[in-house]
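Writing this down once: the sequence line spells out the residues, with the fold written below as integer tokens. I am pasting one below:
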Amino acid sequence: MKPNSGISSNKVVFLILAGGGDEHFADEHTQKQTWANKNELDNDTEVFWLRGGNMTETSIQGTTLTVPCENHLLLEKTILGLKWLLQHSDFAYLVRTNVSTYFSPKLLLKKISKIQDKDFFAGYKECTGIQRKPSDEMSFASGAGIILPRYTAMKLSTLDRKSTRLNSSHANISYAVFCLK
């Protein structure tokens, strides 16, 4: 399936950033036992846990999507995950989140179904904490839950994933800067 900007379904995909270490695996296990359990999700919902790995191409094993990059490069990992999903899923909306975040899928899907705009970027609002002057402060959507329609996910997937400027700054701020253009 080729990426397209048209929304061909009401499918929502949760793309959950997962790292290594016992804490991340424990959080993932808890998500799978609670809100991300197949019994809690409807047929138009998919969940993928996104990891980085020392490899040359993206692989999928069950619900774990592993992309060729280091785990700590969150922006690069997200972009590679988006590119894979755009080729392999007909989702209408994507929720990019973390292993430590919990949702009420039914409530979220009810809210998402009311969205009409195809070009937006939404999430819990945070602000940069350290600034030299008030004009340095910047608002951004927290990685705890960023909602993107397919069209915006396609735009975000075009970011230069190797950009030193973007990978050296906070990934969530990088998304916001790009989406404000």
